[in-house]
UniProtKB/TrEMBL annotation:
Record-linked InterPro entries: Prenyltrans (IPR001330), Terpenoid_cyclase/PrenylTrfase (IPR008930)
Record's compositionally biased regions (Polar residues): 7-22
Region Disordered, annotated ranges: 1-26
Entry GO MF terms: transferase activity
Official protein name in the record: Prenyltransferase and squalene oxidase repeat protein
Pfam families xrefs: Prenyltrans (PF00432)
Amino acid sequence: MKEPVQHQGTAMNRQRSSQLTSGMAHHRASCGQRKFRLTINLLLIAIVFLTPFPRRSFSQDSPTNSSGSAPQYVTDQTVQATAEGLRWLARRQRMDGSFGNNRERSESVGIAALCGIAFLCSGSVPEAGDYSETINRTVEFLLSCSQKNGYLVDSDSASHGPMYGHGFATMFLAEVYGMTPRDDLGEKLRRAVDLIIATQNSEGGWRYNPVPQEADVSVTVCQVMALRSARNAGISVPKEVVDRAVNYIKSCQNPGGGFRYRPFDPAESRLARSAAAVVALYSAGVSDDPVVQNGLNYVVERLKIRDDREYYFYAQYYAAQAAWQARDNRWRICFPILRDELLSQRAGDHWEDPLQGDEYATAMALVALQIPYDVLPIFER
């Protein structure tokens, strides 16, 4: 891969910073609308049993330096790769707002949501930015997939685990809530959240389908992230739902800090699900608990060894978020490893995954590489 010319990359950094400044202003305005809406709701219905997911100032601890250039550890090559990846991904969007050429293979709701999140991370929002139209088409597609019971699913695609797609789609819609004038977004978002709440099983988790039966840590993480994003947007989430999910995730931890797939499975830890579990616990307000810290230490060690390629892009997506939440030397260790490896895996202007699809791989890589910009509320430290 050809190295970018230094002065061109620096110019990209300045352009990127300008775009992000504009995008973050829109995000902050949206957050203000959300807070006002939440205040009114609380005054009207006085619900006292909601989960107080922690909220922080929008750019607290942001690594962006005083000159307005790219955040620390975001190199010129990273900026160029991100810009090229976003352009490639935008070209892969269909007219209906979904992504990719092989709808049979792709879980189009989940992949569309991940692509939308990647564009939001770039600083674009529905009303402004280079990818505003792309984001709006994504919103349109996901809302068109909303069923009467709140289920976000595309009947035209074959999906192994549709609750993954539902979780990612709910999270994306919650992130854009308040940024778009669409009247049906709020209603369909609430129904999507209600479906998650209604399908939690007796152990506190979720699995592939919207029925309260089995559960696994991976699908559970996806629903917890959706609930946290919804709570940030002012949607009611009962405290006990989150508490039970946290307890379920904790029950999957192995003695070495990593996580197994289900509580009763063999004690085999893997990087991908362990990073995801750590992120979900952080998102639920659990940060200083030894379960989280031991889990994060496991993630860091596995990243340093670089010997776990299972669900590669899923692992990078969550490992970047987990390390970002650490606020310590573990971020400084992890992100350069993640960054350099992802850059080395590029296939021209994007990333490839023969199983899940190139749109999936590219979206997850782009989110991981853009985490340091600290744009979205769901990824705030």
